[in-house]
UniProtKB/TrEMBL annotation:
Keywords annotated in UniProt: Cytoplasm, Gluconeogenesis, Glycolysis, Isomerase
Alphabetical list of PANTHER family matching this protein: GLUCOSE-6-PHOSPHATE ISOMERASE
GN (gene name): pgi
Compartment annotation: Cytoplasm
Upper lineage: Bacteria, Pseudomonadati, Pseudomonadota, Betaproteobacteria, Burkholderiales
Similarity comment: family membership: Belongs to the GPI family.
Cytoplasm is among the record's keywords: yes
EC numbers: 5.3.1.9
Name of the protein: Glucose-6-phosphate isomerase
C-alpha cells in the first residue's frame, strides 16, 4: 500500500522549506539576487513556452518537489498509464486517451522503454483507434462536402460538449466549411429552443454525443430534437431524403442504446477514454467537420508531441511534471485554494470552463486510490475569463484583495486573421498584468497600494493553430495526472456527480407519488412550492 502523500519524508521537508524559505520570499528581491532565475524556472516544451519564474518558489523548492515526485513513484504511475494498466481502479479501466493521438508507428513515443514492452492488445487497440479515426474523418469530409447541410448541432454535456466547444471556438480562424456550429448542453429548453428556431431539418445534422448514451440531459435534448425534426417534415423512413438516418449521428461507446433510440449511424470509442478526455475521439467529429481532416490530424500531432515529452523527458525538464508539482505546492504548502485562468485570446474564451471539468472533476477527491481519507486538500477551484476583459472586472481583487490567487496567463505570439494591429496591445497587456502582480505599487497612498509579490505563470504559444492547441490541452491533461499521482487519488472517476443525478430521479418519482417520507423539510418545501399555483 502506498503511503499517504503527507506522510512522505519529502512532504515534511517541503513544509519546513516553506516555513523557513518561502514564506518570506519576495519575488522582486529574488529576481535581483538570482541572475539565473528566469532561465532556471522557464522552459520550452513542444508548442508551449512556459515562464514559471514569477511563482513563489525557488530552484530549491523544485528540487524538493522532484524528491516528492520520486517518493510518490510518479514515473512508475505514469509508465503504468502508458502500459495500459487499469489505473482507473474504481471502474477497472485503463486510461488511454493519449493513444487516440498516437501515430501508427508510435511516433516520438517510440523512444519510451515502456512502449518496447507493449502487449499485443495495445497494438490492436492502436490499430482500432486509427480505423475509427479514418472512418470519422471520412464522415467529416462527406459532411463538409454536403452543400445541403448548413448547420451542425452537437447535443451533449460535460466531456461530450466542453472539449468540442472549446476547440471549435478556439479554431474559429480555421473553420473553412461555411457551416454554422451549435452546441446544446443544458437541459434548459431555452438552449435547444433557440437553436431549433434558427435551423431547418433538411439542412441540419444533429450529433448526439454521449459516451454512456444514458445522460439524462442529453437524452431529453436528443428526444426533443428528434421530435422537432419529425414534426417539421423529417421522417423515420430511411429511404426518405430527410430521414433520421441521414440527419442524426450518434457518438458513443453504447451503440446498442443509440440504435434503440433510433440512430443507426454511430461512431464509437472505448471505455478507456474518459469523457473529459474524449475530444480526440469520435466526440471530436464537430471539430473535424469544422476544420477538416488535415487540421484535425495536426491537432492530434500537437497533442502527441506533448505526450511524447511527458512520457519520455526527464522529470526535471518535463513541463506537465513541473506544473503538476507547482499545483501541489500551491494547494498544500502555500494553501492557495484557487487558480485563475487568464487566456489573452478571444478564441480561448471557453478554456476556463473546459479546465474546470478537466481539473476539478479529475482531482476534486478526498480519498486515495486505496480508499483512505486524505487529510490535505486536492484540486483548487479553477476559474477565469479571457483578458483583457478580466482586467476590468476581477483583476482588482487579484491586485489588492486579501487572498493570494496564482494567475495563469496564456498568450499567443502571433495574432490571428483579424485586426492584427490589436494583437500587440493584447499581449502587452498580459505581460503588464503579470508584471504588475509581481512589482506592486507603493508610495502613492493607502488606496492605491498594491502589495505585489503575487504569483503568476505565463504560457506562450506561437499562435492559436490546431497543433499548438492540441499540445496545450494535452499539457493540462498530463499536469492533472501529475498532481493526482502525488495525492495518490484516482483522477479518472467521478462518483461525486452520481448522487445529485440519483436524487433528481427520486424527486421526479416523489412528485408523482407525493410520497415525501424521509425527505428533509427544505427539499420538500421547495418541491411543494413548485406545485403551488399561487407562487
Ligand atoms: O458523455 P456522457 O456519458 O453523456 O457523459 C457526460 C458527462 O456527464 C457525467 O455526469 C460526468 O460528470 C461527465 O464526466 C461526463 O462527461
Amino acid at each position: 500500500m502506498t503511503a499517504l502523500c503527507h506522510e512522505l519524508p519529502a512532504w515534511q521537508t517541503l513544509q519546513t522549506h516553506h516555513e523557513s524559505q518561502i514564506r518570506q520570499l519576495d519575488l522582486r528581491q529574488a529576481f535581483a539576487q538570482e541572475p539565473q532565475r528566469l532561465e532556471t524556472l522557464s522552459m520550452q516544451a513542444p508548442h508551449v513556452f512556459a515562464d514559471l519564474s514569477k511563482n513563489l518558489w525557488t530552484a530549491d523548492t523544485e528540487r524538493l518537489l522532484q524528491q516528492l515526485a520520486h517518493e510518490s513513484q510518479l514515473a512508475a504511475k505514469r509508465d503504468a498509464m502508458l502500459a495500459g494498466a487499469a489505473i482507473n481502479s474504481t471502474e477497472q479501466r485503463s486510461v488511454m486517451h493519449w493513444l487516440l493521438r498516437t501515430p501508427l508507428d508510435a511516433g516520438q513515443l517510440a523512444a519510451s522503454p515502456v512502449l518496447q514492452a507493449w502487449q499485443p492488445d495495445m497494438k490492436t487497440a492502436l490499430q482500432e483507434v486509427h480505423d475509427t479515426l479514418n472512418q470519422m474523418l471520412a464522415l467529416a469530409d462527406a459532411v463538409r462536402n454536403d452543400r445541403q447541410i448548413t448547420d451542425i448541432v452537437n447535443i451533449g454535456i460535460g466531456g461530450s460538449h466542453l472539449g468540442p466547444e472549446v476547440v471549435v471556438n478556439a479554431l474559429e480562424d480555421w473553420i473553412d466549411t461555411g457551416k454554422n456550429f451549435h452546441f446544446v448542453s443544458n437541459v434548459d429548453g431555452h438552449e435547444l429552443g433557440h437553436v431549433l428556431h434558427r435551423i431547418k431539418p433538411e439542412r441540419t445534422l444533429f450529433l448526439v454525443a454521449s459516451k454512456s448514451f444514458t445522460t439524462a440531459e442529453t437524452m431529453l435534448n436528443a428526444r426533443s430534437a428528434r421530435q422537432w425534426f419529425l414534426d417539421h417534415g423529417g421522417s423515420e423512413d430511411p429511404s426518405e431524403a430527410c430521414s433520421i438516418d441521414r440527419h442524426f449521428v450518434a457518438l458513443t461507446t453504447n451503440k446498442a442504446a443509440a440504435a434503440q433510440f433510433g440512430i443507426q449511424r454511430t461512431l464509437g470509442f472505448w471505455d478507456w477514454v474518459g469523457g473529459r478526455f474524449s475530444l480526440w475521439s469520435a466526440i471530436g467529429l464537430p471539430i473535424a467537420i469544422a476544420i477538416g481532416p488535415m487540421q484535425f490530424r495536426a491537432m492530434l500531432d500537437g497533442a502527441h508531441a506533448m505526450d511524447a515529452h511527458f512520457f519520455t523527458a526527464p522529470l526535471v525538464q518535463n513541463l506537465p511534471v513541473r506544473l503538476g508539482l507547482l499545483d501541489v505546492w500551491y494547494r498544500d504548502f502555500c494553501q492557495f485554494s484557487s487558480r485563475c485562468i487568464a487566456p489573452y485570446s478571444h478564441g480561448l474564451r471557453r478554456l476556463a470552463a473546459y479546465l474546470q471539468q478537466l481539473e476539478m472533476e479529475s482531482n476534486g477527491k478526498s480519498v486515495t486510490r486505496e480508499g483512505l481519507p486524505l487529510s490535505v486538500p486536492t484540486a483548487p477551484i479553477i476559474w477565469g475569463e479571457p483578458g483583457t476583459n478580466g482586467q476590468h472586472a476581477f483583476f482588482q481583487m487579484l491586485h489588492q484583495g486579501q487572498d493570494i490567487i496564482p494567475v495563469e496567463f496564456i498568450a499567443l505570439r502571433d495574432g490571428g486573421k483579424y485586426l492584427g494591429e490589436h494583437h500587440q496591445s493584447l499581449v502587452v497587456n498580459a505581460i503588464a498584468q503579470a508584471q504588475a502582480l509581481m512589482v506592486g505599487r507603493d508610495g502613492e497612498g493607502a488606496e492605491k497600494f498594491c502589495p505585489g509579490n503575487r504569483p503568476s505563470s505565463f504560457l506562450l504559444l506561437q499562435r492559436l493553430d490546431p497543433a499548438s492547441l492540441g499540445a496545450l490541452i494535452a499539457l493540462y491533461e498530463h499536469r492533472i495526472f501529475v498532481s493526482g499521482a502525488i495525492w495518490n487519488i484516482n483522477s479518472f472517476d467521478q462518483w461525486g456527480v452520481e448522487l445529485g443525478k440519483k436524487l433528481a430521479k427520486q424527486l421526479h418519482q416523489r412528485q408523482d407519488s407525493q410520497d415525501w417520507e424521509g425527505v428533509d423539510a427544505s427539499t420538500q418545501g421547495l418541491m411543494q412550492r413548485l406545485a403551488h399555483s399561487n407562487f
